[in-house]
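hey so u asked for the seq, here:
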Amino acid sequence: LKEFIPRCVDRGILLGLSTWFIGPGSEKIQGLDEFVRVWDETLTFLKENDLLHNIYYVDLLNEYPLFNGFSWLRDEMETMKKDNANRPTETVADPAERARQVHEWKAKAGDYNDPVSREFYRNFANNVIDRLRGKWPQLDFLFCITNNGSADWRVMDYSRCAALDIHYWFVMNARLADPLYWQNIHTVAAANDLQFPQVQDVILSNWRTHKAELVDWMDAQMGEVAEMGRKNNKPVGNTEGWGLINWLDHPALSWDVIQEAGEICARLGRKHGYRFNCTSNFTHPQFPRLWHDVGWHRRVTEIIRHG
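ran it, structure tokens below
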């Protein structure tokens, strides 16, 4: 952080802070008080090292409440589910297994549609923001959310969040999704790349065949996010999207769907008044073919900037 943040300042780059709570020691953080303590110590470290100048927002738990590594939160929700339904639930103690499950979007993350569970995760988010905002009033806090029917983003209380960051991907729609993708690309447990050519063919065929329907679907989802923002008088956007959740820079796989989806959703974001947006999940140097397509990055970024 002490090396990276000043380089961003020098280049005029604003930063959002976020965490998955994955990694050695993360399982030791138990409870709301400890969660707040970890963030407070991190922000104190940044302040003491004069590193808060270009921090644009603080996303307190990436993809709240289900797709992260904060084991205490997930276990508490599992316990409430068991208590409410009077049925046993399975917990995962191994941190490595927990980290693997974090990425399993296709697997049912849990049924948290009962009123008690919903109230719990609404209150947790609000209490954390209230406590941190009380000490750090100069910072904007939020919980970004990935759409999931088991813990629907629409039932959250956004009164404390600085913005609505709701994550969507086209692959969440069955018209694009295919079991081959979930089994061979999305999961971190994929054993080999033998099925990659077939995955590529199926995904590209689905995309070309159903593109109009898929775009209409995404247009509706983003419109719903924008409406929720207006209802709460909050800016809206998306920091993770838009084509496929996981993808690889591999000779058998193309970036066509990712790139088209990014441009489509940049324009849809402009249509719906998104105040911030992303081009894709993959704007990192470990994806060299996409990384080096400077023209595409500039084109999509220009659309976003003029929204």
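The beta strands are 15-18, 55-59, 141-142, 145-146, 164-167, 236-237. The radius of gyration is 20 Å.
lmk if thats what u needed
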